[in-house]
Design brief:
The chain has nine helices and eight strands. By secondary structure, it is an alpha/beta fold. The chain has an eight-stranded mixed beta sheet with strand order 3-2-1-4-5-8-7-6, sandwiched between helices. Strand 7 and strand 8 form a beta hairpin. Helix 2 packs antiparallel against helix 9. The radius of gyration is 17 Å and the shape is globular. The model has no long low-confidence stretch (mean pLDDT 91).
Length: 225
């Protein structure tokens, strides 16, 4: 069983997140992808973060709206049930402990989150435990000229191990001992949770940025005002 772990604040979840999940499924033959909203994101300013249960409900609504997700996506509340800050290392170890031994795991991250991974708890252990799927923007075909790919390469060489090498056949960085870091290029949607929260405060319509049910929930709960 091949399993993807896609964690994040999802503050709120938006159409860019959903597109990324579909693109990961197309490129990697994953049997299941867990979407894992964080309870207390350790690196976020809590003043602009919606309640964890509200963010969890929005993720459920977003997935329910799209029939494609029913076959392979599951929403996880594992970090909501765990006390204290939501650390990725704890979540990875949790799934490794409860899923079958022959399961293989992938940690799905946007490129911005990956370039901050060195600030995470026990981050070096992650490179020994689980391959990464890094979602980047257009240009992976010519990765040497792509700013995001160069940033990932520099990060790996200077922060993790200079022995990582790019393998064009798999569009990823391989290492003799550590797990592979795959690069997944997708055509970007010009959407971010930060943009959505700003638009809400400015009384702008966000109907084209989030699923219908999520938009209604935000309006009903008067979130991000």
């Amino acid at each position: 069983m091949k399993t993807g772990l896609f964690g994040g604040t999802f503050n709120p979840i938006h159409l860019g997140h959903l597109k990324a999940i579909k693109e990961v499924k197309k490129r990697f033959p994953l049997d299941k992808i867990y979407i894992i909203p964080s309870a207390i994101p350790p690196h976020k300013d809590q003043t602009d973060v919606a309640d964890a249960n509200e963010r969890y409900e929005m993720v459920k609504m977003a997935v329910k709206d799209d029939s494609e997700f029913k076959e392979f996506v599951e929403i996880s509340d594992v970090e909501l049930k765990r006390s204290g800050p939501s650390y990725t290392i704890d979540t990875v170890l949790h799934y490794k402990s409860i899923l079958p031994e022959d399961s293989s795991f992938y940690l799905i991250l946007g490129i911005d989150a990956f370039l901050e991974v060195n600030t995470w708890k026990l981050y070096m252990n992650l490179f020994d435990l689980i391959p990464f799927i890094i979602i980047t923007r257009s240009g992976i075909e010519n990765y040497k000229k792509n700013e995001g790919c160069r940033a990932v390469e520099e990060f790996l060489f200077t922060r993790i191990s200079a022995k990582y090498r790019f393998n064009s056949k798999i569009s990823g960085y391989v290492h003799e001992y550590k797990k592979t870091v795959f690069m997944l290029d997708i055509a970007p949607l010009d959407i971010s949770s930060t943009m959505i929260r700003r638009d809400i405060r400015e009384n702008k319509n966000i109907g084209s940025l989030v699923p219908v049910a999520v938009n209604s929930f935000i309006e009903k709960k008067r979130l991000y005002l």
